[in-house]
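Exercise 3.2. Students should predict the tertiary structure of the chain below and write it as structure tokens, then compare their answer with the key that follows.

Predict this chain's 3D structure.
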Amino acid sequence: MTRVQLICIITNSACAQLNMSNSPEFVAAAEAVKTFTSRPTDEELLDLYGYYKQATIGDVNTDRPGMMSMDFKGKAKWDNWNSRKGLSKEAAEQAYIQLVDTLKEKHL
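Answer key:
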């Protein structure tokens, strides 16, 4: 069992584990994001989120936060992920890697 899987089990979260099915390049890009010295813009963060979720889970598998919900951040994240619907795992991984490479120039 990997450390990420163990953390997900302990926290009982539905986190998208980086697992054997993700490419080493994708895993390295996901780790690189954690080393950014400045915060990406909200739009950059949403794009990172959408590609990451599509690459690790696939098409959105949850309901959009409700109309009465004041969770605007959750709605924006869900919308961004849902906008990648139908994108293959491999294509989402490549888009994520390219985005991280671009963001490294600004945030490292």
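Discussion points: Confidence is low (pLDDT under 50) at residues 1-16. DSSP finds five helices and no strands in the chain.
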